[in-house]
Amino acid sequence: MRVLFVYPAFERHAQAYPELKEHVPCEEYIGSPSLGIASIAACTPKDVDQAFVDDRIHPFEEGGWPEADLYAFSFFTPAATRAMDLGDRLRAEGKTVVMGGIFPSMMPEEVAPHADAVVVGEGETVWPQLIADARAGTLKARYQADEPADLAKLPRPLVELYLDAEDENFQPDDYPLQISRGCPFNCDSCVIPCVMGRKIRFFPEETVWETLKAFAARGKRCCLTEDTSLMFLSGARRRFRKLLRRIAEHREAEGIALSYIGTSMPLLLNLEDEIFEEIRAAGIERFYLVGGFDPITRAAFGPGDAKATEQAERCVKRCQDAGVEPYVSFLVGNEEDDEGTFDRMLEFSNRVKLQIAEFAVATPYPGTPMWNKMIAEERIIDRTWRRYNDTTVVFQPRNMSPERLQQGYLDLWRLFYESRQDLKMADRSLCTIQF
Ligand code: SF4
Hints:
Bound molecules: iron/sulfur cluster
CATH architecture of the largest domain: Alpha-Beta Barrel
Radius of gyration: 21 Å
Distance between the termini: 32 Å
Number of helices: 17
């Protein structure tokens, strides 16, 4: 049996709005795929032949894809339009298609007409049964993972599947490293607690270490995306610091390296000075500071609260003083935001001398609190899933028109980078959080 895992394409900022190419990095960074497929692949029976195709690099239209008995898609909302279209086309050719990941877990009814089977929830626990059913010709329409996976029992992700698929067109600098799943918070437009639950679960340290080593063996660095910043929560910090120290100790001998840590301003402000030293010792060069979900950035750039603004400035300065570059991701379109938000963000960026930033539009991803609220208040104005990618206004904002918010987002990119034209393109690569 042969399984072809598919990571469907989605549009990023300058792909969705080509006018941005003039002002933001021309070679917009194409991030590595999320670890979801690699984790499922590790749970595939050994006698199944498996391969991986990244539709962003090798689109289906360019000569089709290798033959397979099962085409297994994993995707989040920005890729849903493309995924469902591809599912239709493959099935029209008589192929068998299964779909899982964040969007199918949140919107299984929407996905069902485009696939032979939909996987809902964390797929590792149901995947072996799905493979057995596919072999027997008894595939069911839905596979529901009722419980979150027991991370202590999962093998490390089969990252070689991605690394073997790299070619001259696609060689990401870094790949995400997952050290936990789930989140006790409930931020407006975040899908993590919806898909992975409200309880934070940790991978065993050895699983994390073996994953790091597998990437290092092929010369790859890892990054820690924002959901992992929860390792800065007081209950998880000791575990994370142990990992940082282990990386610092072995990074030269093993070639292990971390590029950046995604986190939020409140978590960063609460860190002890020694952790900054450990982060530096582990070779981490950048903090990716996700804004718009936490109380500090929402108050600083929404109503312009003076105390929150001072906290945000202190946070950026702390990073700069520690020699770890702050890369702020500004989110526009929260309920507090008004037409003054754009200026507040630019003034802040100039005041604290930010060298690099990105701008995103608040997006009501299905299943999130923001989605539920927008549905209840009948404020969704666009259900085209490919536009749910942090670039396009798909809802009626509270304090301005959709057009004003859209223009404000585009102006922010332009005005921020116009005044930083001296920056080398290579220093402006984007490393946006995995949606
Ligand atoms: S944005 Fe971060 S803190 Fe908020 S729910 Fe998502 S993972 Fe948790």
